[in-house]
Fold this sequence. Notes:
29 strands, six-stranded mixed sheet, 553 residues, single chain, 21% strand, Diaminopimelate Epimerase, Chain A, domain 1, 18 helices, alpha/beta, binds zinc ion
Amino acid sequence: MSRRLFVGATVWAGAACVPRQTWLLLEGDRVAGVGSQEEPPPQADAVVELPGRHVLPGFVDVHLHLSQAAWFARGTDGWSWRTLGEALRTVQFAAAASPQAPWLLFWNAARWTWPQGRLPTTAELEAVAPGRAVLISTVDMHRGAISLAGLEAAGLAASGVQAALGNDLGRDRRGRPTGELWEAAFGIALQRALADCAAHAEQSGPGTVLAAEAGRYLAHGITHAHDPYVAPDRHEQMLALDGASPLRVSWATGSNAGMHSRPPGAAGAPDGPYGQAGREVKLFADGGDRCAIQLPSRALTGLLSGAILESWRLKGVGPLREALRRKTVVGPRRLHTPYLRYTDAELADLVTGYAAADIRLRIHALGNLAGAQAARVLRQVGVAEGAATIDHLMLLDPATADAVAESGATVSYQPGFLPRYGPMLTGSRADRYATVFGGRLLADAGCPPAISSDHPSGPLDPLGNLRAAVDRQIGDAQALQPDQALTEREAVRAATVAAARSLGLPGGGLAAGQPADLVVCTGHPFAPGTRIAQTWIAGDQAWPPLAGDEQGL
Ligand SMILES: [Zn+2]
């Protein structure tokens, strides 16, 4: 077995990720040892000199939509659109430029920054792209706009289907679809569009598209990507990717219909393992825009005046109209948004079935009401410690954080959302009444969170996400709830060791006997100019790719 010695670097060592200047020895696919004070470096077959560099455990991203993000290059990024008109002009241009494309796909629409505050209607899409299947996805991947041809292609035009989708499908007063899609309806349209694109790309093969996406992650220092939703009929593709790419890949299952649809139960879950982790299923306790939050009733005036200010700032009624459309139930002491996707009994039923089959649970809970429900149901069902992960917990309060810790669930959150959604959250004043991406609150409650990206909803960049967990910047040198910051060591641990453990993997960091998955940074990981220099997986350099004669050293 070959022994490789890294010298001259600062190694973020052990499960606690403590930085110290020392050597690191790899033997085969494992870490053989990390130097302690004054210990001379051992003999090795090859010495890698890394003066001034920092060596971290490989980044484990436990919420990374690899199988969806791989197709983004086939669509158009709508992040920079600032009005509805800009969006429609881009659709018109794309329709002319790609006459053969089965779908015209647009991502990352931040409609809350538009004066109109809403997405295009079927009539508006028909006017600029007649007869074409168009799907515009908002940045949170829970809401979208679809054209008439898109409704047909996605099987959403039949009245029976429409009735079953209820409020997830927007309708006008006469019951005709407006093209507005929410949650399950959006997930179904997205799944259909991606399947059609995959069929259309048959010449190069979907494997090429997935492998290119995996390669991009390696360049960012990610050694393990966990996709929170892969349809059962796509598992084969992911298994092929796991075999073909040095990237470690794992995923959760769900419904074939789409990401936000109710999963079919344990009997409908393909056999495992799912890549490099055990079986897992994704459930949505609440939605995206339609997240389930609970705040003190006095928050109402703050939320409303926040929306009025946003409308004034953007010179349009959009934000105010959106705020008024959002269902809010106001009680004497508390208000809440009634957007839980399951009753406690329904959720408990699903959780019981999957837990009995030894399938891990990954529960999406953006709002504190959903987080509290997830924790309550996990405890009630008696799910074993570490057998569930609660994802996001964007809005949190101390009681809910305690309930989450008591549930025995691990938690993954996305500090990278702070720059992206922070201004919206402060604009709506939600941050006055709840903790936003409360890393410190979770850690203090005894539930140290894993950092994940939720790419493409959040930025992929793991170094950027680490820094966001510590500096909590939302632009204009403004930090959002800086008391919720993690320390640098905690952040590194959250993106590596804690993340691996949350998937039931070893997660001992850079220590003897652990997998030799690591990242070499050009300098201190929290210094702004630092980049990824190398990514190593199982003792081999995975990025940048080696030339033929450098391999097998
Ligand atoms: Zn996600």
